Each structure stands twice: as C-alpha cells, then as structure tokens.
Amino acid sequence: MFNSIIGKMAKSSLMAAVLMGASVTANADTLIPTDLTRNIEQNITAQLQDMLLTAQRELSMSIQAQISSSMFDVDEADEVVQTAEKDGLANVSVKE
Fold first, then answer.
1. Among 35, 50, 46, 40, which residue's Cα sits nearest to residue 18?
2. Looking at residue 2, what is its pLDDT?
3. Range of the domain at 48
4. Measuring CA to CA, how many Å separate 45 from each of 26, 36, 52, 67?
5. How many whole angstroms from its chain centre is CA 54?
6. What sign does the CA torsion over 22, 26, 30, 36 have?
7. Does any domain span residue 22?
8. CA–CA separation, 1 vs 55, rounded Å?
9. Is the pTM higher than 0.85?
10. Which of 23, 88, 89, 95 is deepest in the core (most CB within 10 A)?
11. Does residue 91 lie within any of the structural domains?
C-alpha cells in the first residue's frame, strides 16, 4: 500500500514536470491557457497533499501496530518468566 502511494506520487511529480517543461518550451500560440494550467497545478498539489497525508496515516498505523506487537511479546515473555520462577520455587519447596 505504501509503495503504491509512492508510485502515485512519482507519477504525479513526473506529470507536473512534463507539464512545466512543455509550458516552458512551447510556442506562445500553442501554450495551455493560464487558467487551465493553474487548475491542473492546483489539482496536482491537492492530490500530492492527499497522498502524503495517506502515507503519513499508514506509517503511523504501522508504527502503532509494531509497538503494540512488541509490547504483547514483552508481556508474554514476562508471563513465561513469572511462570518459570513460580515453578522453580514450587520445585524447591517440594524437594525440601
């Protein structure tokens, strides 16, 4: 999912670069009208911002999932240690 967002961002950036390059190198009579160019640039900017927000949310959720998984693993390890300590103490008291 994160890779597809990066791919979309790259495509949008490439499209913006092509449009900017075309507007610089084209003749005056074949240029895209200013209003249309402005609208396209605004749309590209809005899409890039949306993709960045989505990527940020996904990254945050991924980090939260990794942290919760790590905390769960630590809790499991603590339970195993506590159980082992209890079993060890029980075995010692039974042997005495």
1. 40
2. 60
3. 2-71
4. 23, 14, 11, 33
5. 7
6. positive
7. yes
8. 9
9. no
10. 23
11. no
pLDDT of residue 94: 45
In a domain, 94, yes or no: no
Domain count, the chain: 1
> CB–CB of 1/58 below 8 Å?
yes
- If one compares 35 and 61, the residue with the highest pLDDT of the two is 61
| Rounded-to-integer distance, Cα 26 and Cα 72, Å | 60
Q: Which of 70, 58, 51 is nearest to 11 (CA)?
A: 51
- Write out pLDDT tens, residues 4-58: 777 777 777 777 766 666 555 555 555 567 778 888 899 999 999 999 999 999 9
Q: Between 34-95 and 2-25, two packed helices, what is the crossing angle to 10 degrees?
A: 160
89 within some domain: no
Answer for the pair 2, 59: CB distance below 8 angstroms, yes or no: yes
